[in-house]
Write a structure and sequence with these properties.
The protein has about 375 residues and is α+β, with helices and mostly antiparallel strands. It is built from 14 helices and 13 strands. It binds 2'-deoxycytidine-5'-triphosphate and calcium ion. Calcium ion binds next to β1.
Length: about 375
């Protein structure tokens, strides 16, 4: 069984937003800051049935964790002034999209792995320099905080495995840089469960054979690991523990783009809304063009003065490339929304295009848009 040799020197960054869903809630309701805050997925069966989606770091001090029943979280926070909020994934997604745009902009290759996590290959961008990567990380952290009020933790390493462990190393608001020559020393004392794929069960199995740290895992004979975990996992554990990983950062394409604006004043006046959303449409469309994409669906997003979010969308029967289709659909959808929601007053309004299709030929689009 050959161990994989590392590929040419790379600089990889992993970014993970801190306590993301609760952080989003604290941004729109700053009065919640400083209190334990729990975002919940209510099942609706009884008042408190359901599970914790995430907890802010203050609530975590009391033992509240993602996945825990809400009732248990309430017990842990009994007699404490804590806030429990229902999950609002659409809103978190909009915040996430804006942050991912900031990150995508600096990367040679960008791979979003979840709503709040992404890998960036910045090898060319930094000319292979870890010092330069650290500077970029600081700029990104500052920009994300200034624009969105959200902190993140960043890890930088020569590959994805090391970058991911590094970003978790000093959470929240951390920045950990692990240069190639520091990898073995960095990983060695860490517990095996820091590796993606090693959960409580695998940790237990490893402990039984005397392996608790990544250093111990790295110096275990690979054939022994293969014997226990099978070829694929055995090799993965062994290589990862040594900090060897040549998985590329796989460029993920965006499937949708959105823009949202705060209206000058709260309103349900359709022409007022249309006028102001036009700014968002122009901005959004410039991004669609920049990416050279067509789209198959147009949606609107409305956030009421009570901060509830409403969405409507329209599926096209063709792939559109022009701005007028977005404008027309937006006007129709806002009109429909106001009719269907006679009491809603809008505070923010936005536009979304989805079903993005990479165009085969930019020249064709140009011709299509300006037929002369
Ligand atoms: N999430 C969830 N249920 C889980 C785990 C996570 O709904 N069992 C959601 C809520 C989180 C988001 O996914 O905010 C991101 O997950 P993370 O594991 O990155 O957790 P956080 O961002 O909340 O915290 P951390 O600061 O530890 O990254
Ligand atoms: Ca996170």
């Amino acid at each position: 069984m050959e161990e994989r040799k590392p590929v040419a020197k790379r600089v990889i960054m992993h970014v993970d937003l801190d306590a993301f869903f609760t952080a989003c809630e604290e941004v729109r309701r700053p009065e919640l800051k400083g209190k334990p805050l729990v975002v919940c997925v209510y099942s609706g069966r009884t008042k408190d049935s359901g599970a914790v989606s995430t907890a802010n770091y203050i609530a975590r001090k009391y033992g509240v964790k993602a996945g825990m029943p809400i009732i248990q979280a309430k017990k842990l926070l009994a007699n404490i002034e804590a806030e429990f909020l229902p999950i609002d994934k659409e809103y978190y997604k909009i915040v996430s999209d804006r942050i991912m745009d900031i990150l995508r902009d600096v990367a040679d290759a960008f791979e979003q792995v979840s709503i709040d996590e992404a890998y960036l290959d910045i090898t060319n961008r930094t000319n292979g320099s870890f010092e330069e990567a650290e500077v970029i990380a600081k700029i990104l952290k500052k920009k994300i905080y200034e624009n969105e009020g959200i902190t993140c933790s960043i890890g930088i390493g020569p590959n994805k495995v090391v970058a991911k462990i590094a970003s978790e190393h000093n959470k929240p608001d951390g920045l950990t840089v692990v240069k190639p020559e520091e990898v073995r020393g960095f990983l060695s004392p860490l517990s095996v469960d820091r590796l993606v794929g090693i959960g409580p069960k695998t940790s237990e199995k490893l402990k039984e054979i005397g392996i608790e740290t990544l250093g111990q895992l790295a110096s275990t004979d690979v054939s022994k690991l293969i014997g226990i975990f099978g070829e694929k996992l055995g090799i993965y554990f062994h290589n990862s523990a040594k900090g060897i990983d040549d998985e590329p950062v796989k460029q993920t394409e965006e499937k949708e783009l959105s823009r949202i604006i705060t209206l000058r004043s709260n309103t349900r006046d359709l022409s007022e809304i249309n006028d102001q959303v036009e700014r968002a449409i122009i901005d959004l469309y410039s991004r669609v063009r920049k990416k050279g994409c067509g789209y198959k669906m147009v949606g609107i997003i409305a956030i009421s003065d009570k901060l509830t979010m409403l969405v409507r969308s329209k599926k096209l029967s063709w792939i559109a490339y022009d701005i007028d289709t977005i404008k027309k659909a937006s006007r129709e959808l806002f009109e429909r929304l106001l009719q269907e929601e006679p009491n809603v007053i809008l505070r923010r309004a936005g536009i979304k295009v989805s079903g993005l299709v990479k165009s085969v030929d930019q020249a064709y689009i140009d011709k299509f848009i300006k037929p002369d």
